[in-house]
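Just wondering, does anyone understand what follows?

——
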Amino acid sequence: MAMNASGAAGWQWLNRWRIIGAIAKFADVFTRSWAVVGLLIASCAGSPLSPASQPTPHAQPTPTPDYPLALAADVLRAFTEALNRRDFPAAFALLADAPRATLRDSTALARSYQAVLVAAAAQSFYIEPRGGLLVQDGRATAALATLWESNVVGPFTVTSTLALTFTQAGWRVDWTPDAIIPGLAEGVLRLDREAPIRGAIYAADGTPLAVQQPSTVLGVQRGAIADAEEEARLLALLSAVTGLAPEAIKAKYADQPADWFSPIAEVDGEALDAHYAELERFPAVGVRLFYRRAYPQPDLAPHVVGFVGPIPAESLEAYRALGYQGDEQIGLAGVEATADGVLAGLPGGQLKLFANGSVTLLAARPPEPAQDVTLTISPPLQLTAQRLLGAQAGAVVVLRAGDSAVLAMASWPSFSLDKRPRASGALLNRATQGQYPAGSTFKMVTMAAAIGEGLAQPAEVFRDPGYWDGLGRAFRKTCWLRGGHGRITLQDGLTASCNVVFYALGLRLHQHRPDALSEYARRFGFGRLTGIELPEAAGLVPDPDWKRRALGAAWTAGDTVNLAIGQGALLVTPLQVAQMTAALANGGVLRRPYIIAAPRLAVPQQAESPERIELSALSAIQQAMIGVTRNPRLGTATYRFSDFDYCFQDERILPCRDLPARARARARRLIVAGKSGTAQAGGDAKPFAWFTAYAPADAPEIVVTVVLENAGEGSALAAPLARQLIEHYYGLPLSSAPRERRVGD
């Protein structure tokens, strides 16, 4: 059949599309971009431009009063300098009468250079005269070297010739488009882009999470359509094959260059086979291979994986400056967005000038290959986290204690990657972007600050009658335990989450230094980005300077006292709480959480890790956190872990009751260290329920942080979920949450 080269190649591919699909991973994708620069320049001028005649160079004559050579050099220098600083009115003022009449104004001159910048995907150019002037009979010529900085083909230099004419007004520039690129006046500049196949995303165990799937696209080459009658028949057939309206199909190719393959619609092999005989009668029809993003596990960690989509209109100019054509798919959320540069690679291509029947290769650069990305996510643990969180608004973060690798990260509301969510709330990754009051999970920071500043000791005894009047009876504050904890040490105060103890510490810290507690909060990673390879929020650590700037008010003792129990203006993310917990577990090293195992990406400078926290209070805090789950008298979550009794035996973890009494006494136990929190949300809304923990307490391997929005108390609701995740991690049967609840935190 009669078919253009593109169409013929496409139909050859069609006949063996299943074989090609199997090896499509190794194919390159070519995207062709046309820029008819010569026609653009001509349209700017209002009439076709002819190349200036280039005189045969002769030996330079001795300057005469009629043709002062020095003045010609001055004009040449002034003209190129004006172009280099993009002062096109100044450059236009130096033109001779002929190019002034052709261009009409400086805007047309500017568009001539801009058209080449666009066609070459270049950001800038710089012109430099080379050698001296050749002068004869009132005309002069000079060689120009123009350096173009293209984001597709890289930097390249073009040498051209610029003519000057001596007029009554002195030397003037006899400019033509050939002064930009020789042959451009009647030629066509074309950039053939070559884009690498987008890299895949895999989970830690190799499960594919995002891949490129080969597919076929049906397209039209407008210039190969014979006449209006053939076009009508072609549109009717394509409408039947694709389901698109004829006018919608025509709109896809009507404004494209005549010999450009214009994609119409993605079609499957079955549809192409069914209409093969009809389609092959049209030389304008072609079939090409392309790739689309697919998510084999659309419900697995969607906030982490993210998705791709068209370049947003507000970002289009920036992406074109990077060498994109503008119709590509880019990462818009999750790892797809933050690792987009790695996953996409960089386009390459060839820049060619078609003029007078010949082709000149101006510059070329191969594409930079895309890379696959492997995450630290464990699919079984991730799915369990998502299932346990269920439809409760909130988030779960599970870290590997030793290096803060993210093993699971769940957020609700959620969505499926095979369809874009309608509600923007579902797109928010609450694990990294949700900002909440920390509640009692912040008390570890307060204890560290008080001991670190020499204001308290773990064994110091406090008196809790159920209330605290440290700011005066008019500002009485109460403990969550209505009758109070009586005499209680600082360490036990953390285990029991005694508010009165921490009110007193807050006042001491304020009197010592009003910004001391805020400073310790930042040491623990609050109020700044963690540096994880995902979109995240920094949260807020209030201090005297912040309050003065934001509210125009002075910082008071009451502000520090509120901050001491994790309330007030303090805002944290679940990931930041998990990062703090990991630091407490591993001896005070605040490591940057990460979710991309390979390749490792650059991180924000302020999030460089590890950073060591000097914690004289570390041992006391760790013992207090063990008491939260083990101290039957004071621990706020002991009733949630009362039957959590497992022992390590060789390579196994068994219920301790299954061991003989003597072995049970010597066995190492699986103990969880944790902290509950119930953060007030304001008004009549239920509080945010927190629980953060690590296990085993004696040699931490896993960190689990849970927050449930407007749910209730942390020990009642968040602690059971954290326990179940630890059970899953160690292959233990999942417990069911006890029905009874206890007031706490």
About this structure: Residues 647 and 654 are 5 Å apart (CA to CA). Confidence is low (pLDDT under 50) at residues 1-65. The first strand starts at residue 29 and ends at 35. The first helix runs from residue 5 to 15.
